[in-house]
Design brief:
Layout (H helix, E strand, L loop, with lengths): L4 H18 L13 H14 L6 E2 L2 E2 L6 H13 L2 H4 L2 H22 L1 H12 L2 H7 L4 H20 L5 H15 L11 H11 L12 H29 L2 H20 L10 H9 L7 H13 L5 H18 L12 H9 L3 H5 L2 H27 L2 H11 L3 H8 L1
Antiparallel strand pairs: 1-2
Helix pairs in contact: 1-5, 1-6, 2-3, 5-6, 5-7, 5-8, 5-16, 6-16, 8-9, 9-11, 10-15, 15-16, 18-19, 18-20
Length: about 400
């Protein structure tokens, strides 16, 4: 990032503030149910047993997720020596990476002031902050997938830049062996091709979409996936063990296509994600009240800058893709959030000047402050059974809760 002196200072102040907000409480707690203990214990068993290629939960092969996230947790333990820090570190680093990439791309597309507002909007989004402070796989996937989109958009909006295209495709591959859906980042390429036909302004020259070079970039994706897939399949073939064969079948088909096409849990109606965006993406979703009419008027007048419509169409496509499946969780669409912020970025400074937007933000901040204060005070002075239950379930005392929640 070739920033000037003031720009560099602004970026590092943003990062320091993000660390203060997102890293508070790390090292004070153990993994919380339901998912955090599962991943942390699998990572711990990797370290203890030395079996890194095939994750285990006890004596059973663990085929729910590829091992990448557990590798990261185990590596964090090697660096810190503490599982209380290590199990949260991948999510924190991925969140900071996401913020940095959104800031940098917004700065390159719209300027420094817009970049700061966009990054702060992402940082204060409820789902982003909640997930980055947790130790589920989704925050790590978000960071890797945002890196993939960043690389592709550096080529498609600011290019041609073949190096960043290949980096983006490679990151999409790494994301795919973290959680299978990261391949969706590659959809930015056909979206850009469709945008050229629709008259989007600001796309790179046609030579930047050379089929031969695009194919080479996709090979970077295949290479990244192969780093785990090839050794895993070769070992399964060599062992010729039914348990390992079932592991490969489940992780490649059962946990991906079958879970998407024939889900058995987390069943919700098609409009479920609209509810999640309206609530869990606050306060950034407030901006849609003004942005959607603005985009509609601009489209009708022929205002179609690719720097807005490409990330926006990608975010819409992600939400649509997961809405088609009967099984839905709010975290599934989280990779769309940074791209929505990027599309909203040039409008955010103007929206923030509107009195109605300021009143909405004040009301949200007041509700959060009151809710967290009441919850903290109740944990300290309220019914003793509440504090004891919280301590036994979460491994926390009331005073640290007050300090870390605000």
């Amino acid at each position: 990032m070739s920033l000037g002196e003031s720009q560099r200072r602004q970026f590092w102040l943003l990062l320091a503030f993000a660390v203060l907000l997102l890293a508070s409480g790390i090292g004070l707690r153990d993994p919380w149910p339901a998912d955090e203990p599962r991943f942390a214990l699998v990572a711990k068993q990797m370290v203890d047993s030395g079996e890194w290629l095939f994750p285990h939960r006890g004596n059973e092969l663990y085929s729910d997720k590829p091992p990448m996230f557990m590798w990261m947790q185990a590596s964090a333990h090697a660096l810190t020596g503490s599982w209380r820090i290590a199990f949260l570190l991948p999510s924190l680093l991925a969140g900071l990476l996401t913020l940095g990439l959104v800031y940098d791309l917004s700065r390159r597309l719209h300027g420094r002031r817009v970049a700061l507002v966009a990054a702060l909007g992402l940082l204060f989004t409820l789902q982003f902050t909640f997930q980055v402070r947790a130790a589920q796989i989704d925050a790590t996937l978000l960071g890797i997938m945002t890196l993939a989109c960043y690389g592709l958009l550096r080529h498609l909006l600011l290019g041609p830049n073949w190096r960043w295209l290949w980096i983006g495709c490679f990151a999409a591959g790494i994301g795919t062996i973290t959680k299978g859906v990261a391949f969706l980042a590659l959809l930015l390429i056909p979206l850009a091709l469709a945008g050229r036909r629709l008259g989007w302004q600001g796309l790179p020259p046609r030579r930047a979409m050379s089929p031969g070079k695009i194919a080479l970039a996709v090979l970077a994706f295949v290479l990244a996936v192969s780093l785990w897939l090839v050794p895993m399949l070769w070992t399964v073939w060599r062992l010729d063990d039914p348990a390992y064969t079932d592991y490969a079948r489940d992780i490649l088909l059962g946990q991906t296509a079958s879970r998407y096409l024939t889900p058995t849990h987390h069943l919700h109606p098609p409009w479920y994600y609209l509810q999640m965006i309206a609530s869990m993406w606050l306060p950034i979703s407030f901006a849609l009240i003004w942005a959607i009419p603005h985009w509609w008027r601009g489209w009708r007048r022929g205002w179609r800058p690719a720097r807005v419509w490409l990330p926006l169409s990608f975010a819409v496509l992600i939400v649509f893709f997961f809405s088609l499946s009967g099984g839905k969780r709010d975290v599934y669409i989280m990779p769309a959030l940074p791209m929505l912020v990027l599309a909203l970025a040039p409008l955010l400074p103007g929206i923030l000047r509107k009195p109605a937007a300021q009143r909405l933000l004040f009301a949200m901040a007041a509700l959060l402050a009151v809710g967290l204060t009441v919850g903290s005070l109740y944990a300290i002075y309220g019914e003793p059974a509440f504090a004891e239950r919280l301590r036994s379930l979460r491994g926390l005392d009331p005073w640290p809760i007050t300090l870390t929640m605000g």
